[in-house]
Amino acid sequence: MTVIFQEQEVSPPGSCVDAPTKLQIRDLRVTFSSRGKNFVAVNGIDLEVRDGEFIAIVGPSGSGKSTFLMALDGLTPSSGGEIAVDGKVVTGPGRDRAVVFQDSCLLPWRNVLDNVSFGLEMAGMPKGERYEIARELIGLAGLTQFETFHPKQLSGGMQQRVNIARALAADPQVLLLDEPFSGLDAQTREIMQGELLKIWDERKKTAIFVTHQIDEAVFLADRVIAFSARPARIAGEWSIPFPRPRHLSIKQSPEHRALEDSIWQVVRQEGALAAA
Ligand SMILES: Nc1ncnc2c1ncn2[C@@H]1O[C@H](COP(=O)(O)OP(=O)(O)OP(=O)(O)O)[C@@H](O)[C@H]1O
Ligand SMILES: [Mg+2]
């Protein structure tokens, strides 16, 4: 199998360049068993993520991106290697990490305020305190006027903003996002990309964002990583040089397009290998 490794000769922008390591992944392996047979979904991934860094992961369907993210969250056990947050080895889910999935899974009988503060309520935080935290995040997500609305009264984009606010409520160190905008139309998706960057910039979280949209990956990330066809390895890595804050218009620039092309080549090749 051909491995293409490409690296732009540029430094990642932003304040995270000299930041300490937040997330350390060493030789990570994930194996599933099915009908008495084992198959490897993730095969020896090494990755070091700096505090406050925004990483986007792309790769063919079925390559192991969600599995990788679930292993980082601790929901899927690894079968080899190590994951550490701030030097502390991950052995299961913890409050230092939070996940946002593609499908909004808000509690339908709770309003926005009670959805965002749900995790804090479960942790036993008094109402006044948890509402204060939730209201701040709802404001950051631009939903102050909607805090008494229930999920079915919100658009898909608004629901995903509530999901992001909810994930941030417990003040996690690392935000894991698995195709959070893939159910949205193209225009809402672009708005959400800008909103996410605003929230990320305000809260200075370390983010790992899985997407199939290469332009989204380049626009959002400090670093884009392409996974190989399953079992997932790192097939390519690109530092994204655009300064922040970023405006959507940079997507039209030749530099942005060139990066997209370069990433596409690797993803397409890996996709062809997956289909072979
Ligand atoms: N719980 C599980 N048990 C068995 N096999 C699984 C499980 N979860 C995922 N897999 C398998 O692991 C491989 C990687 O799946 P994964 O969902 O991580 O891919 P992906 O890169 O996220 O794909 P997509 O882009 O389509 O979301 C697939 O072959 C899938 O069938
Ligand atoms: Mg997936």
Can you put this structure into words, describing what you see?
- This protein has about 280 residues and is α/β, with parallel strands linked by helices.
- The protein has helices at about 65-75, 110-115, 120, 125-140, 155-170, 185-205, 215-220, 255-275; strands at about 20-35, 35-50, 55-60, 80-85, 90, 95-100, 175-180, 205-210, 225, 235-240.
- A 6-stranded mixed beta sheet has the order 6-7-8-3-9-10, sandwiched between helices.
- The radius of gyration is 19 Å and the shape is globular.
- Mean pLDDT is about 90; it is low at about 1-15.
- The site of magnesium ion has 3 residues, from α1.
CATH C-level label of the largest domain: Alpha Beta
Bin the strand percentage: 15-25%
Strand order of the largest sheet: 6-7-8-3-9-10
Helix segment tally? 8
Query: How would a crystallographer describe the biggest sheet?
Result: 6 strands, mixed
How many DSSP-defined strands? 10
User: What integer value in Å does the Rg equal?
Assistant: 19 Å
Low-confidence stretches: 1-13
Shape, please? Answer: globular
Overall helicity: 25-40%
Stated plainly, the CATH topology of the largest domain is called Rossmann fold
CATH architecture classification of the largest domain: 3-Layer(aba) Sandwich
> Which compounds are bound in this model?
adenosine-5'-triphosphate, magnesium ion
Helix and strand sequence: EEEHEEEHHHHEHEHEEH
Q: What is the SS-derived class?
A: alpha/beta
What is the average of the pLDDT values? 90
Report how far apart the termini are: 11 Å
Keywords: ATP-binding, Nucleotide-binding, Transport
GO molecular function: ATP binding; ATP hydrolysis activity
Family: Belongs to the ABC transporter superfamily.
Protein name: ABC transporter ATP-binding protein
